[in-house]
Write a structure and sequence with these properties.
Alpha-Beta Plaits; 4 domains; five-stranded mixed β-sheet; four-stranded antiparallel β-sheet; 15 strands; metal-binding; iron; Fe-S_Ferredoxin; 4Fe-4S ferredoxin-type domain-containing protein; 4Fe4S_Fe-S-bd
């Protein structure tokens, strides 16, 4: 029995898996997200009638989809961020590279250099590592992952020009310029590392981090990437605006609403993460934006014309922002609460509209 169980675990963890309940396309009809389909070099990911599916038989296990999905709906055991943290921590200095160009014995290997994320650089910065990226674009043109110029590292220039880190990230195209090396460890550390590695391998076989239990009615929990981002920002205490390309990579944005906002609940109801929420008291109704939950999914913009996006700074990520607020008073029709500037509450307003239509049709004397 155990042998069958472990064999199934090994097979499951050897392939990319999709949690349909975390996929924006499958959760909400207003989502236009297609990042995974665009980056997939095989016809393995398809969007049909608004629903996303993964055909495992056509998947080449390139794992590019994992690093572009804003909700981490795709899972592959060895592509989790804490695994990258372990690799970064074990290096004296860090060199990120891809499977085609890097050296697994010294480099932190990614499925593709375009899979490099700001959170990974933040982890390296927290551990005070020198960081390089080994990237020869000419070799990328013949890559099996169908390299395109859309997948580039232009955002690294913004990283180097920002105050996120005191150290610049160097892009090199020659292995000889690499400074990456493994951190030297004592015998005691080596024994401890071996012991922990054995425990991890056993836990890896027995326990499965892949979770499909999310209810479509529930808001999505924070992704691991977002948890790392918040921890890194807390550790560095960064201030100032986040450069646009980095904010795009992080999937974080500032939301605002126009003065025409009616607090209709559409945006808060469709928001998959709870970044937009409506707070109601006896005296007022408020629309609150929590930036650290936002994944820049565009759903709120697709359901409401009053939503606006703008650049965000580091301080705004860590706090809640009041977007719109209106006072409440008693509805003369039913005695329930209504917006102060309106004559009736929503329910009574519908009744009044229906009644006026009936009067016009002569159905009421």
């Amino acid at each position: 029995m155990w042998s069958k169980f472990l064999l199934k675990r090994m097979v499951d963890k050897s392939f990319v898996r999709l949690s349909e309940s975390r996929c924006l396309r499958n959760r909400n009809k207003h989502s236009q997200c297609s990042l995974c389909e665009e980056v997939c070099p095989q016809p393995a990911i398809n969007i049909t009638d608004g629903k996303l599916t993964l055909d495992s038989s056509k998947c080449s296990n390139c794992r590019l989809c994992i690093h572009v999905c804003p909700t981490e709906a795709f899972n592959y055991e060895f592509e989790q961020l804490h695994k990258y943290e372990q690799k970064i921590q074990s290096c004296e200095s860090v060199c990120f590279s891809c499977e085609e160009q890097g050296d697994p014995s010294t480099d932190v290997i990614l499925p593709c250099v375009s899979s490099l994320r700001p959170e990974m650089l933040m982890i390296g910065t927290l551990y005070e590592k020198e960081i390089q990226i080994l990237w020869n674009e000419k070799r990328c043109l013949s890559c099996k992952s169908n390299w395109t110029h859309k997948r580039d590292l232009i955002w690294i220039n913004e990283w180097n020009g920002s105050n996120i880190s005191e150290c610049n990230v160097e892009i090199i195209d020659n292995k000889d310029a690499r400074i990456a090396s493994k951190r030297k460890v004592s015998r005691r550390e080596l024994f401890s590392l071996s012991k922990n590695k054995t425990k991890d391998q056993v836990a890896h076989l027995v326990f499965d981090s892949f979770d499909q239990s999310s209810n479509l009615r529930d808001k999505l929990s924070l992704t691991d990437r977002r948890k790392y981002l918040l921890s890194c920002l807390k550790g560095k205490n960064s201030i100032g605006n986040i450069p646009d390309k980095i904010a795009k990579k992080l999937g974080i944005v500032k939301l605002e609403v126009t003065n025409n906002c009616q607090l209709c609940r559409k945006c808060s109801a469709t928001c998959p993460t709870g970044a937009l929420k409506l707070e109601e008291t006896e005296e007022k109704t408020s629309l609150i934006f929590q930036a650290h939950y936002c994944i820049d999914c565009d759903i709120c913009e697709n359901v409401c014309l009053e939503i606006r996006k703008s650049s965000i700074n580091f301080e705004e990520i860590r706090k809640s922002t009041l977007l719109h607020e209106t006072k409440l008073n008693e509805c003369p029709g039913c005695g329930d609460k209504k917006i102060e500037t309106k004559t009736y509450c929503e329910e009574c307003n519908v009744k009044q509209v229906r009644k006026s239509i009936l009067y016009q049709n002569g159905e009421f004397d």
